[in-house]
Amino acid sequence: YGGRAVRLMVLSVLTAVLCEAAGSFIFKAQASVSDLSAVATGLMTSLCMPASAPYYLPCIASAFAVIVAKLPFGNARSHMFTPAAAGIAFVTICMPDKVFSYPAILSSGTTAVSGGQGFFPGTSIAYMLSQKNSVGTGLLNYVDVLVGAVSGPMGATCSIALFGALLFLAVRRPKNFTVSVSFLAVCFIYALLFPRVLTGRFVSAFMEICGGMLLFSSVFFLTDDKLLPKSFYARICYGAAAGLMCMIMRSV
Fold first, then answer.
1. Beta bridge partners of 151
2. What is the pTM of this model?
3. Where are the domains of the chain?
4. What's the confidence (pLDDT) of residue 135?
5. How far apart are CA 193 and CA 203, in angstroms?
6. In this structure, how many other beta carbons lie within 10 angstroms of the beta carbon of residue 175?
7. Is the distance from CB of 156 to CB of 162 less than 8 angstroms?
8. Which of 13, 40, 116, 189 has the most CB atoms around it within 10 Å of its CB?
9. Which residues contact residue 38 at a Cβ distance below 8 angstroms, ignoring those fewer than 6 apart?
């Protein structure tokens, strides 16, 4: 995506940190900038954006995440929602045309702003599913999806990297992994039972798992330590319920 992706991430992180510092000063709360939670929020928010997003879009999302979804509930150890997910939801509702306007993958590695001169729109996997179109059944088609050679959120298209993050959770944070794997298992089974493309159930399930922000969310949003249930079976139910709700909403 070129340098534009880096600038989007930097602006998003700076916005989150500044809002955290300003909010802590105004509300006389203990600042939690030093724990890097604001940095993580800004980074996750920007990674869910298209590389062609206008610069103000991740800034608005990060500001909402910190000011509305985090600060009113205290600090990074007491929030009721995953702030980055709340920020993404806010801009998705307010400006869906900007959030879902993904650029085509160009060999030049550069990306223009959505709707601007030099912008070439791409087709995301999520959009293909909504239109009942398949990525195909060839091996190279699967490879393109796994390595991120498809249009989509700039941090959520490289599926092989996200599967690597899942492996890290399995080894280092098994409690978090429990939620992720139960979420993905329900999503996969649902996709097999109710395929949205005609080239096969497995192809449909593969596209569902790798499309949109589903895999990214299973790694970074659902595994928030402050929101995880305490017991093993509660975490299984938590992830499974989230997966079922996600797939039902996708199918509507």
1. 124
2. 0.89
3. 3-99, 125-251
4. 86
5. 12
6. 14
7. yes
8. 13
9. 13, 16, 17, 19, 20, 32, 66
Show the DSSP H helices in 48-105 as ranges. 56-67, 83-94, 96-99
The residue with tokens 């299984």 is 236
**What is the pLDDT at residue 78?**
66
Q: Residues near 55 by Cβ (< 8 Å), separated by ≥ 6?
A: 7, 8, 11
CB atoms within 10 A of CB 237: 14
Residue 9 — pLDDT band, cuts 50, 70, 90? Answer: very high
91 phi and psi angles, rounded to 5 deg: -70, -25
Q: Which residues pair with 121 in a beta bridge?
A: 103
Answer yes or no: are the C-beta atoms of 144 and 212 closer than 8 Å: no
The stretches of 134-226 forming alpha helices (DSSP H) are: 139-147, 159-172, 174-193, 201-210, 214-220
State the sign of the Cα–Cα–Cα–Cα dihedral 72, 74, 78, 84.
Answer: positive
Cβ neighbours of residue 49 closer than 8 Å, sequence gap 6 or more: 8, 12, 57, 58, 61, 99, 153, 154
The CA distance from 11 to 8, in Å, is: 5
